[in-house]
Write the structure tokens for this entry.
Amino acid sequence: MPTHVLILGGTTEARLLAAELAARPGVLVTTSLAGRVTRPAAVAGEARTGGFGGAEGLAAWLAERRVDALVDATHPFAARITAHAARAAATAAVPLVVVRRPGWRPVEGDRWHPVPSLAAAAGALPGLGRRAFLTTGRLGLAAFAHLRGVHFVVRSVEPPEPPLPPHTEVLLARGPFTVPDESALLRRHRIDVLVTKDSGGAATAAKLTAARALGLPVVVVRRPPLPAGVTAVPDVPAALARLGLTPPPATA
Ligand code: NAP
């Protein structure tokens, strides 16, 4: 029987890990996606889409499919599935590896305003600017919908769902983004405040560099905590090591 690894995906790390595992003889890898994105990027190995029906449903799936290891490589803000993964792994007695790319760190020149939630970001906004660049994802815009005095430029991969703030422009785009492009966007739209989740990673960090160069304030929504007792590894090589598989040698 091959070793069966279930990856809870929706991130670059999940795709990279699936490719690593699928290339190994004797390893069967299944990636699970929530199904929020209409045309998700292809993954190596098997794929499945849609919720499991809570932690109990996930635990049953792990047992039925004889999963040997569960990897939670979901987005740092996908707190529900992460809580379910921890409970399901314990119920099914399956080892759990959680992959979380490190959060961003402010550097000199940054004008960051850390907040605990999207609601708190909305509360902070009117005191910081009148033209906001909102990159917090298409779900959750309801938190900003009551703000009439702020013009929003919202960037998301898929069209956002109502309710939206009354003054909203939508830009559909998928990262990675470059610093010159982000700087041009901030200038073109006369942005005076940026709102972002602390997603971490390189693909969407350019906006922070651009905002710093322009001296703009940035409202940074902090990550939800990991479930009690759960620790994370920062990247794919560390996840492979935690699974007991050696990372491939680095190429020159
Ligand atoms: P969430 O609030 O933590 O999860 C809500 C429900 O969606 C879960 O209870 C689960 O349903 C289902 N679900 C979530 N991820 C799943 C997965 N990988 N496979 C199967 N079912 C999944 O999640 P979310 O914040 O809506 O994010 C959904 C997906 O988008 C995640 O896979 C995440 O990696 C990705 N993503 C999220 C963000 C973000 O900012 N939140 C950004 C980029 C990508 P059941 O209880 O029925 O199992």
Remarks:
- The pocket of NAP is lined by residues 8-11, 32-34, 36, 51-54, 57-58, 74-75, 77-81, 84, 137 (CB under 6 Å).
- The CA atoms of residues 34 and 77 lie 14 Å apart.
- The chain has a mean pLDDT of 95.
- Helices lie at 12-22, 54-64, 79-92, 118-124, 179-188, 206-214, 236-242.
